[in-house]
């Protein structure tokens, strides 16, 4: 039980990071392979911890959203309305969100900033993580030769990983800067 509590704490903390956190699956796989914890409870624990961490991250960004300039708040409100108005878009986005290999921190940050309902996003994320963590954990038995420290260092030194994180952060900034009201047929009088 202590091993699962430690795993929960590590995964929860990593999923609170707004950017540049190591992929949770690496922690899950390395932890599971270097401990006596059965993979099924470890996968479930990690998925719950990841979902709760990302949910809290989105809630923090929702609070941060109240402090950004008025024009950006209007843009974000329009993005939320555009997203919520189209049910088909909403379901496609939730599906992509659940199974996306892209870093999820910025997706949750965007969800928090726009004010969309977080519970459906969190549940989709949780379901997707149960699937992806299972694939990684059960399919990566050969990772026994690596250490947790090496996985962290590799994640921080990977040019592709850094590039994707920076691209996602730029996308988050762009989300707030786009005048989403024009897609709703509204125009900014200024």
Number of domains: 1
Write the H/E string, N to C. HHHHHHHHH
Q: What proportion of the residues is helical, as a percent range?
A: over 70%
What is the tally of beta strands? 0
Class derived from helix and strand content: mainly alpha
Number of helices: 9
Using the CA coordinates, give the radius of gyration. 18 Å
Q: Describe the biggest sheet? A: none
Distance between the termini: 59 Å
Describe this structure in words.
The chain has one domain. It is mainly α and 190 residues long. The protein is 75% helix and 0% strand. The termini are far apart.
Give the topology.
Layout: H1 2-16, H2 24-33, H3 39-65, H4 70-85, H5 87-99, H6 105-114, H7 118-139, H8 148-157, H9 159-177
Helix pairs in contact: 1-2, 1-3, 2-3, 2-7, 3-6, 3-7, 5-7, 6-9
Key phrases:
9 helices; elongated; mainly alpha; 190 residues
Summarize the structure.
With 190 residues, this protein is mostly helical. It contains nine helices and no strands. The mean pLDDT is 80.
């Amino acid at each position: 039980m202590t091993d699962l509590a430690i795993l929960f704490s590590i995964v929860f903390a990593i999923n609170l990071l707004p950017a540049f956190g190591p992929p949770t699956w690496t922690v899950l796989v390395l932890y599971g392979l270097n401990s006596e914890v059965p993979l099924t409870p470890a996968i479930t624990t990690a998925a719950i911890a990841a979902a709760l961490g990302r949910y809290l991250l989105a809630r923090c960004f929702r609070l941060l959203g109240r402090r950004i300039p008025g024009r950006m708040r209007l843009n974000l409100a329009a993005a939320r309305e555009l997203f919520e108005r189209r049910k088909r878009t909403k379901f496609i986005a939730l599906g992509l969100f659940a199974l996306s290999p892209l870093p999820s921190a910025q997706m949750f940050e965007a969800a928090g900033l726009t004010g969309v309902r977080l519970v459906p996003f969190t549940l989709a994320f949780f379901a997707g993580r149960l699937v992806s963590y299972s694939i990684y954990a059960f399919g990566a038995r050969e990772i026994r030769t690596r250490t947790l420290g090496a996985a962290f260092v590799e994640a921080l030194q990977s040019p592709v990983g850094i590039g994707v994180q920076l691209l996602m952060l730029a996308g988050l900034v762009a989300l707030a800067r786009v005048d989403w009201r024009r897609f709703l047929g509204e125009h900014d009088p200024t």
